[in-house]
Amino acid sequence: MREVRVLKGHGTGNDFVLLPDLDGDLDLSDEMVQALCDRRFGIGADGVLRVVRSAACDDPDAAGAEFFMDHRNADGSSAQMCGNGIRVFARFLAEEGLADPAGMDIATRGGVLHVRRLESGEYAVGMGAATGMEAIASVMVGNRSYPATGVHVPNPHAVVFVTSVSAAGPLDRAPEVSPEHLFPEGVNVEFVEQIAPGHVRMRVHERGVGETLSCGTGACAVAWAVRRRGEAPERIRVDVPGGTLHVEERDGELELIGPAVIVADGTLEADWVAAWS
Predict the structure, then answer these.
(1) Average of pLDDT values for 51-68?
(2) d(Cα 67, Cα 44) in Å, to the nearest integer?
């Protein structure tokens, strides 16, 4: 068993383990993902991003671009997309000389997305159009129930507007969302506090992970919901515990803008890999 290269990165505190596996040689089991994301016995992260060439991957969504972002939640489950993760993924490709930072396409389970590096060093991701749900969900926190707006970007989200994000409580468990049939595969829940026109604060509980410092698709869902509540600018500022994101909407298309940070680059010991393979 060979050593495996591994990197650690984050986007506004939403952190990831990156596994460069360009030729699709790595057998990435759910157990290995869980071990990598363990913050005491592993590297620690909200999820894993496997970097693989689409031609070397048997996932049916690995098509339409040279590279596929195989995104796994911390519990090992697959996820459609990650707005913070794809920026870190794009920075890796750009710095490895594998893609043009001025513009690159990346295949995900949520479709092929276009990413570009801005002069500021931040990355902008074309997230496509959000899909709102006609049915109104209900989110229970403690003894209080809040109405929630269902949005897919393409991950499922339930957006809850509150007077203060502290109303969400500790978020050490997934909020109860009903009716259950609205989100059969689980849902990310965002609690949103209005600061000023075009400026909100957000906390999120992500399915398969727990509370995270940021959620890129969640920020897009929130911006979409904010604009449909009334007059709001095209560009929405979303403050999250890990920093600040911006979402712009033009002609129904969303673009997510934020930082992408690579923290470390190293290797996994062969014995450790063998133990989880």
Answers:
(1) 97
(2) 24
User: Rounded distance, CA 81 to CA 21, Å?
Assistant: 18
Radius of gyration of the chain from Cα atoms? Answer: 18
Instruction: Return the domain boundaries, the chain.
Output: 4-122+260-275, 129-257
Class assignment of domain 129-257?
alpha beta
CA atoms within 13 A on the CB side of 27: 8
What is the per-residue pLDDT across 138-185, written as a single tens digit (0 to 9) for each? 999 888 899 999 999 999 999 999 999 999 999 989 999 999 899 999
Tell me the β-bridge partners of 181. Answer: none
> Does 1 have pLDDT greater than 70?
no
Q: Three-class SS string for 137-164?
A: EEEEECCEEEEEEEEECCCEEEEEECCC
Catalytic residue among 37, 57, 82, 220: 82
Catalytic, 57? Answer no
Q: What is the C-alpha to C-alpha distance for residues 93 and 107, in angstroms, rounded to an integer?
A: 13
- Whether the full predicted model's pTM is greater than 0.85, yes or no, is yes
Considering the domain 4-122+260-275, what is its CATH architecture? Roll (3.10)
The structure tokens listed for 62 are: 């690995």
Q: 212 Cβ partners below 8 Å, 6+ apart?
A: 13, 14, 46, 204, 206, 242
Whether the bond between 101 and the residue before it is cis, its omega within 30 degrees of 0, is no
Give the mean pLDDT of 38-63: 97
